[in-house]
Amino acid sequence: MFNTFTKREEELKLEKTVRIYVCGITAYDYSHIGHARTSVFFDTLRRFLEFRGHRVIYVQNFTDVDDKIVRRAVAEGKTQREIAERFIEEYFRDMEALNVRKANYHPKVTDHIRDIIDAVQKLIEKGYAYEVEGENGKDVYFHVPSFPTYGRLSGMSLEELNRHRIEPDPRKRDVKDFALWKSAKDEDLKAKAVFESPWGLGRPGWHIECSVMSAKYLGVPFDIHGGGRDLIFPHHENERAQSYALFGVEPVRYWIHNDFVTIRGEKMSKSLGNIVRIRDVLQRYDGEVLRYFLISAHYRSPLDYSEKALERARKSYNSLKNSLELLDMEIAALKTFGEKRNPINCHTEVDSFFRRFIEALDDDMNTPKALAILHEFSTFINKNVSYMSLDELEFCFDRFKQLCWILGLFEGYQRIPVLPRELAELIVEREIARKERNFEKADAIRSKFKEMGYILIDTPKGTRWKLIK
Length: 469
What we know:
4-stranded parallel beta sheet
């Protein structure tokens, strides 16, 4: 995979247990499809690592105290905790629709204030941080020049780093210095977003939380740190500096970042008014369709959102679903009526699809290529489903479903049942009625099945059925 730190693709040399930390949302609003892309991609990576036999310890934090949360809390007459808890709950609801599994740990900043204070004190003691007078106590800053390799992760020059700082503050020793602890402001007090500390009432700066929580849950160094490309600078650059200063080693072995979701080629942003919320998309599309769309481009490429793109994703998703159902209907029919065919052997072709799919994900998680191979597999199924033996059908179904699982598709798929004898006899009755052109009786039997929750499908090989969703 491509390591942002080394700026090249590297073989991931991993132990049996893989430790992953992915930056989560700042919980002040509903999550948008940019958040969804990050969560879906790293969930897919987690699934693939598990498929490869690894035990994955996955950590995703929530920033539950922040300027934006405080501003919303004050505007709505609520506390910081009430705002954050509301939008964390909404995030989980969105992720459930996208088949994004919960992390092993979802730490929140406010549950780790003591750990953060200890880390800030240690950075002061080691000479990497300093105190200055604030509004209601003291602020603490990390002194960037004390860390000589600052900028290595983002690849920015000293001139670029100086230009990117937008927080002019005469109290800073250097324009690049950033806050570790912020003294309480009036808004913080109104929102009850303040905590006792050696520097008076205040709250953590943004970056220190991830250094502290990743180390607490995963140790240092850990294997993979993920997030959107927008976090490389300043968040991950600052996080790396803090963590190295605290622990004396590179804190992360592989830094992995996904690119943006764009709209007409422009990054989503509130200033442009082009934010697309996950829940608004879910009103028109199934969550798995949105997931399909989000993995349809390589994670390191921009992904342009549009209604046409979602419609293409829905059509492609449905074609895979139809193939899965074709296999399942054939399995149910053979188990119900017995096997009467001269079967073909499909193991060689299926094994080839399986191997090529895995190779695509082994090569920098190339999900669009993996999807293309899955569609080849789908076409093979459609052409050959009527000629496979029961064993071949079940082998093909299990392989196809396993590859879909890696991509997070068809998680809630409900198997088509084998019919009891009385219903199987009704199917035979209906087929006789159709041959005798007794369409009234055939339609009556179809209606009876519909009342019981089945759709009957007439094929050249006989009647098949599936459940009404």
